[in-house]
Amino acid sequence: MKKRFVLSVSYGDYRSSVGGTDKVILAHSKMFREAGVDYVFLFPLNLFHNYPIHSNPFWGIIFNDSFIGAFRTEGVMAYLKELSAEQGLCLSCIHVHHLKNVNIRSLCAILNALDAEVYFYVHDYYNLCVSINLLRSDNGALCSGILDEKECANCSYYRDSLRHREAFLSVLNSVKADYHFVCPSDAARQQFVAGYPRLADKAIVLYHQVMHGAYEGNRSTHMPLRVAFVGNQLALKGWEDFLKIVDQSGKTNAYEFYYFGRKPLSRSDIRHVSVEFRDNLNAMTDALREHEIDCVMLWSNCRETYSYTFYEAYSANCYIISNPDSGNIQAQIRQRRCGTVMDSSDELCSFFADPSAVRRCVEAYKSSSAQIPLNATENDRIVDLSLAGQPSDLSGMTVKPESFPKRASDKVMEGLFRWRSGAK
Questions:
Q1: CB 143 within 8 A of CB 134
Q2: Are residues 238 and 268 part of one domain?
Q3: pLDDT over 90 for what percent of the chain?
Q4: Which of 251, 273, 349, 391 fits as disulfide partner to 90, beta carbons 3.0 to 4.6 Å?
């Protein structure tokens, strides 16, 4: 059997970003290479991420975590052809992780030239609405995720979302083989299918991780209670609600507050534990276990498709508090009975205003016989799915003769990107 490679596409360089999508891609790159499959990653090469050019002709290519260079669309296809012709690699399938900032016309040309199965990932709801968290522009409220002229009339995202929906469907039409949508939770699939009912039979649920073993640590409750916020310091993720609890309860000596994440913190009433997952995908779970955190606030104000932070807190035997709008977080809390889902910020404040009630809830959970997973590993089911089909030999693919070697402008763009990002 010839050696295979997977082609993966997303919005930016996963090696230097810290979002959930980037974490999945980083894990996939490692997982596929361990399975003997090379990992080719394609992203729109923007020098300034905050000012993307949607008609940008340049792509960046990363091969097995190493930056190869800048290419135009024909150059990308020439590079892929060279992988087959010179290195004997066959294309197994294509993963499209995100379309934000992607030159849709160029992507369609690439997909149309490659007769391979495509897996589209539902990391967020960008393909339903360009407001990826489904928050309205006019009042900040959560919307249904269903584009409707009457319902969306006052939202500035509506027109852009209609245009993107048309572009998204053009991407699907460019796929020559079969395609599927990989949803990382039942909650994510339900939301995606509500927006695209006709694609229901194409949507599969594949959780990012698989739980193993049993963790018996962190069973006792501390005095004062150790309460933590995990993740990005964003209002969308509940950071302001957490600060409200700290300001309300910080002087009672009933709680010791923690923040686990990368961003620096200047407050003396919150202990900062810096966590970096680049070298250790389980770094957050390890840190929560090491500090024996009692309770974690995951007060996300949007419908999370997965939430690594939930599974990290759950694996550390932490009592988890969230709200009904948090998507898969609230669904998992209800399913696993590992915390509380509260209806409002006011209810949250009232709960923490009574430390004895909080302690009773935490003690009841942590001393229960609930089996907590010892570790979580990346779900390698995607490897099996990606290798199930017939691989494509691209050595006979037709490309324009001027696409390789690269033009001088391509080399200039490549040099600028390397200089600005330190790409290796």
A1: yes
A2: yes
A3: 77
A4: 391
Residue 116 CB contacts under 8 Å (≥ 6 apart), including other chains: 7, 91, 92, 93, 94, 176, 177, 389, 392
Last residue within a domain, chosen from 359, 376, 393: 376
Indicate the pTM of the whole model: 0.91
Kindly report the backbone phi and psi dihedral angles of residue 226, in degrees, each rounded to the nearest multiple of 5, phi listed first.
Answer: -95, 110
Q: How many C-beta atoms surround the C-beta of residue 407 within 10 A? A: 14
| pLDDT given at position 414 | 77
Residue 186's pLDDT is 97
Q: Do 354 and 416 belong together in one domain?
A: no
Instruction: List own/partner pairs for 357-366 with CB under 8 A and 24 or more apart.
Output: 358/225, 358/254, 358/295, 359/221, 359/225, 361/319, 362/221, 362/225, 362/294, 362/295, 362/319, 363/221, 365/319, 365/338, 365/339, 366/218, 366/219, 366/220, 366/221, 366/294, 366/317, 366/319
Structural domain that includes position 242: 225-376
Count of CB atoms situated within 10 Å of the CB of 103: 20
- Beta strand 295-297 with 225-230 is parallel
Give the per-residue pLDDT at 55: 73
- Look at residue 218 and tell me if it is in a domain: no
Residue type, 6: V
Count of domains observed in the chain: 2
pLDDT at 412: 75
- DSSP state at residue 199: G
Helix (H) or strand (E) holding 243: helix 239-249
The domain that holds 101 is classified in CATH as 3.40.50
Residue type, 139: N
The predicted pLDDT at position 50 comes to: 55
Spans of the chain below 50 pLDDT: none
Q: Which pLDDT belongs to residue 276?
A: 78
Domain CATH code at residue 248: 3.40.50.2000
Gap between the terminal Cα atoms of the chain = 31
| Tokens (6 digits) for 35 | 């399975």
What are the residues facing 349 on neighbouring strands?
none
Q: Mind spelling out the 3-state secondary structure of 326-379? A: CEHHHHHHHHHCCEEECCCHHHHHHHHCCHHHHHHHHHHHHCCCCCECCEEEEC
Omega cis (within 30) before 373? no
